[in-house]
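Researcher: Next entry in the queue.
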Amino acid sequence: MTRSGTSSQSRQRELATEVASPAEIVPIGSVAVYERELDYLCRTLRRLGVSPSDIEDLAHEVFLVLHRRWADFDASLPLRPWLFGIAFRVASAYHKRAHREVPRSWDAWTEVEDLGQRPDEAAEQRQRRALLLAALEHVPLERRAVLVMHDLDDASMRDIASALSIPRFTAYSRLRKARRELDEAVHRLVERGL
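Model: Structure for this entry, 194 residues:
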């Protein structure tokens, strides 16, 4: 190997060791994560049954927790399951604060739509989304979290179990039950004409 190749490799090692510790990276890492993951987090909170008017506040609460726990994050693992775990815990606390009395209007806050769609396609997509969100309300939060992570966010069962701090077989069981409950809820809502 040439001296310049060796010099280049040693400089890369020096740069790697110059990287700040996780505690020092928090502001930079959190801002980058915030900018990249805010839309995902808002969709996740919505799917976990958070009222549209509370999504922004809870998203900020999730990022505050993320900021405090940034040093605990294992960068070799995917970020979204870890972020989902935090969002799940924040949403669980939210539901325990008795926000269930507030009627939810899913039409008040919609997910990002494809602006290139024809109006009839966009309307049909909004109806399907509203049906899904209404049906998700009938799935208990612990099972809904697994369903959303696996079927909507494509997270692996290993990542789901880790993010929710549950055994993998429990995650599989919750997924199976949640899918059944979701199907039943969709059928009931369709029969009622939603």
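Model: Residues 6-28, 99-110 have pLDDT under 50 and may be disordered.
Researcher: Noted, moving on.
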